[in-house]
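Figure 2 data, in text form.
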Amino acid sequence: MQNEPISRRAAMRTAVIRTTGGALLARSLAAAPPFWERKAPQDWSPDEITQLLNHSPWARETNLDFEASEGGHLENLPTGAPPQPGEHVPRPEAQAGSMQRAPVVVRWESAQPIRDALQLPLLHTFAGRYVIGVSNIPVEAMTHHRAGHPDAPLSDETMLTELEGAATLETQGRDPAGTGLVRRVPGSQNNYLFGFDKDLLPLTGKEKEVLFVLHTARVSVKAKFEPKAMVYHGRFSV
């Protein structure tokens, strides 16, 4: 009978140790740094690159709202698909004037981890700027005649001018910064780059969030980024 309390205490200690050990292991796994902090870019797998480019602190998949044109097809990539310039999946015809929604990827193209993933330099015209890319904008959303404006011009220059005056970067307590430069990604019909002068909105990484907003008569999209998570090799990277 004297051994029973001792055995019971030993069992309780074992249970506590196991529980504590499991909790510590779970905490350790949860705190494990992301692959871009643990591995060199050349060692990233295709799946890891896709994750970084589409679902990471520098890339947000969100919805773009746009007005359908008469007889127009809604064209966009399926949710979760990595951006492929010029690739479209046709959707059913939409009623003219109706508001449609399509998934797009908003990405901080000037951030070093994105450049390392793409293995491509930024266009030199974007030097000294934050660069936000919006990928997979349905071609239909940017080329149709707006309701009530049947004679509206649809040239590339007109579309880029329209986008230049409609995109902002915002953070709490600061004036929004407007974009001063918009370009279509070379070789793409549905990917655009928005350049913002860094001097207009200096970012330190201590901001709670940064909001990208694009709103025109044709399209509307918003994406939130958390600067505290945008850390690459120990440094804030945008």
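Caption note: Residues 69-96 have pLDDT under 50 and may be disordered.
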